[in-house]
Amino acid sequence: MRFPSLSSQSLHVRRRQAALSCIAAVSLLAGVLTGAAAQERKTAEPLATTSAAVVAHPNQAKRQRIVLSRKDRCVPRGRMLRLKGYTRRKVIALTFDDGPGQATRPMLDALNRFRAKGTFFVLGRNAQLDPAILQRMVLDGHEIGNHSWSHPDLSKGGRLAAEQLADTSVVIKQAIGEAPCIARPPFGATSPQLEAVAKAQGMLLVNWDIDPKDWTGADPDAIAARVLEGAKRGSIVVMHDGGADGAKTRAALPKIISKLRRRGFEFVTVHDLLRLREAPPE
Ligand code: NI
């Protein structure tokens, strides 16, 4: 017999939410300490800007001497690269890449208004600047995935890929109390080497089967039309909440969600779509 995966999923969500309340207190303290450190740095290096400081030390994990333990990791099974889910359920995963950024809050508001769940593949360098939005994503029932630290091509695998993914997972873990189970390679550029790196860190690679090309500046109607045309059971849609203002993508969401709902689709996280971390069979 299998436990219903819905209950393992909600247990999982409850655990994350409990962890979040502790983290809120810790981040408050960390905020005070970081503020003090920033103040000190400001005095010492008056020419340093925030963005320069972020680019200057990408290796967050080493700097803070944090290593993710085995229990933080998922145990990916099956194929290490997924483009869609294979399911009889009428479910679709809307995913948002390259944030968090200016567009993220409006995107969350839209998803929440329509009671749709989404998955955000965040960049570590952006996530470290706004851990509060990662906490909100989880509290609202969305999922967070790893999209590398600074969006280089990681398809050669090796040390660059390992560091980019590990550093980002550390920032996510610090924000929400749990490391991600899924990673999306920058540019969707993958390889067996990168799959092996992700697997060693407990993550599946997740690309997509529907690309409405919102990054080209397409109009909301064009974005929505491409999604509506391609939508199938288990589809994964790639969109963006980082890199541009996201207004057109945000404007396409009501049409996408309401039209697909009328066809009977539900909007779930990648975690739910792929049934990750199911309780083992008894
Ligand atoms: Ni990207």
Describe the model.
The structure is a single chain. With 282 residues, this protein is α/β, with parallel strands linked by helices. Helix content is 48%, strand content 11%. It contains eleven helices and eight strands. Strands 2, 3, 4, 7 and 8 form a five-stranded parallel beta sheet that branches. A three-stranded parallel beta sheet has the order 1-6-5, with helices on one face. α8 links the parallel β5 (182-183) and β6 (204-206). α1 runs antiparallel to α6, α4 runs parallel beside α10 and α6 crosses α7 (158-176). The longest helix has 40 residues, at 5-44. Residues 1-11, 28-65 and 278-282 have low confidence and may be disordered. It binds nickel (II) ion. Residues 97-98, 147, 151, 186 line the site of nickel (II) ion (NI). Nickel (II) ion binds next to loops.
Q: What multimeric state do the chains show? A: single chain
How far apart the termini lie comes to 6 Å
Number of strands: 8
Mean of the pLDDT scores? 81
The distinct bound ligands, ions and cofactors come out as: nickel (II) ion
* Element-level helix/strand string: HHHEEHEHHEHEHEHEHEH
Measured on Cα atoms, how large is the radius of gyration?
Answer: 19 Å
Could you list the spans in which at least 5 consecutive residues all have pLDDT below 50?
Answer: 1-11, 28-65, 278-282
Q: What portion of the residues fall into strands of 2 or more residues?
A: 5-15%
Largest sheet: 5 strands, parallel
Which structural category do the helix and sheet elements fall into?
A: alpha/beta
Helix percent reads: 40-55%
Shape field: globular
Q: How many helical stretches?
A: 11
